[in-house]
Amino acid sequence: MQNEEKDLARRTKDFARRIIRLYVALPKDIVAQVLGKQVLRAGTSVGANYHEANRARSKAEFVSKIGDCLKEADETAYWLELLADEVIVRKNRLEPLLQETNELISILVTISKRARGD
Questions:
Q1: Which of 92, 75, 91 is nearest to 35 (CA)?
Q2: 65 with 52: CB under 8 angstroms?
Q3: What is the residue extent of each domain of the chain?
Q4: How far apart are CA 41 and CA 89, in angstroms?
């Protein structure tokens, strides 16, 4: 399990770095910046919350932090879709990031279910 935790920690950090690079490349108009700040906040929170989950003092705290990761990943997907829907960023450019977001959501759902004993 330790390797899986390290792999996911690395993956969520890489995800955050990709989100940062996306934000930096966004147009400087008000709509792009407002949506960009939302995706920046949510996308970088996934890894931060995962980092905290791995230092949880109890199972309940772990489950809660994984839930926070899942919430932020889901929110990231929403903001990425909105950036594409508003044609601020071409959908084909966002596709790899959206795919990674959806894969992280799937992984986090599985972790959450296992941790809760579902």
A1: 75
A2: yes
A3: 2-116
A4: 18
> What's the pLDDT tens digit per position in 7-43?
999 999 999 999 999 999 999 999 999 999 999 999 9
Q: Which residues contact 28 (CB under 8 A, 6 or more apart)?
A: none
CA distance 52 to 86: 34
53, two tokens: 């989950």
Q: Which of 45, 39, 41 is nearest to 97 (CA)?
A: 39
What pLDDT sits at residue 1? 47
Q: How far apart are CA 32 and CA 89, in angstroms?
A: 9
Residue with tokens 């839930």: 67
Which residues, other chains included, contact 79 with Cβ-Cβ below 8 Å and sequence gap of 6+?
Answer: 35, 38, 39, 42, 43
**Which CATH architecture does the domain made up of 2-116 adopt?**
Up-down Bundle (1.20)
